[in-house]
Amino acid sequence: MKNLLAEIINIPVDDPIAFTFFTGYMAMLAASVFFFVERGSVEGKWKLSLLVSGLITGIAAVHYYYMRDYYLATGMTPTALRYIDWTLTVPLMCVEFYLLTKAAGAQKSLMWKLILASVLMLVAGYIGEAFTDGSTFHSVLWGVISTVGYVYVLYTAWVGEVAQLAKNSGDPAVIKGIKTLAWFVLVGWAVYPIGYMCMPGGWLNTGLGWSASNVDLFYNIADAINKIGFGLVVYGIAVSSKK
Ligand SMILES: *C/C=C(C)/C=C/C=C(C)/C=C/C1=C(C)CCCC1(C)C
């Protein structure tokens, strides 16, 4: 029993991936408590946005709880758990875009289009990653299909419906907040396809010889920024909106 316990909680001192799995878990959990509690202090029309922020980090916290143990026990990338997490949390981020622009006239159809695009992005990415035969063809085919979904969300946030609605809202907090969230989609989200391309068969792997051995380190840092940071921007909109 004693040995078993030691094995479970022992984090190698020189393993930054293990560290970020543990800090990532705790940060997601703390962020959820923050968003759930602060939900009570924002104006009525922002309460749902805060709830969704808390759900995003909460869902991630549960997956990190399992991913850190999986990683410690096996030393491997928890691919399935990651994609299950993303398939729940990324569509919820799309819901945030809808909720934030709802007052400016966003329709439900906008929400469903974004959810569909993000699910396409993640299902294709999962097939590309989990069912790889190591060939460039498989990696690129599913990578390109996935990127179609990504570009759709990116386009919508930067110049499409979401950007237009934010502009029409006439609320400086919404305009600035949506612009910041669009930057998250452009820069923060780009970490994932770069990691994907470092895997066997990926362009950066076969072309430049980049390997995906540290991919979890980048994913863990990116997840914290993209989920907690994203939620904080939503919170910022809620507290600074004048209307
Ligand atoms: C909290 C988790 C987030 C914000 C995850 C985002 C994931 C992506 C933007 C993934 C994108 C991918 C591509 C655009 C192509 C290659 C396959 C993916 C799934 C890694």
CATH arch. level architecture:
Up-down Bundle
Low-confidence stretches: none
* Number of helical segments with 4 or more residues: 11
Annotation, overall tally of beta strands: 0
Kindly provide the name of the CATH class.
Answer: Mainly Alpha
CATH topology: Rhopdopsin 7-helix transmembrane proteins
Distance between the termini: 59 Å
Q: Report the principal-axis shape.
A: globular
Helical content stands at over 70%
Average pLDDT score: 94
* Helix and strand element order: HHHHHHHHHHH
**Could you tell me the strand content as a percent range?**
under 5%
- What would you report as the Rg, rounded to the nearest angstrom? 19 Å
Provide the CATH superfamily: Rhodopsin 7-helix transmembrane proteins
Q: Give the biggest beta sheet.
A: none
* Unique bound compounds: retinal
The number of distinct structural domains comes to 1
Q: What would you call the structural class?
A: mainly alpha
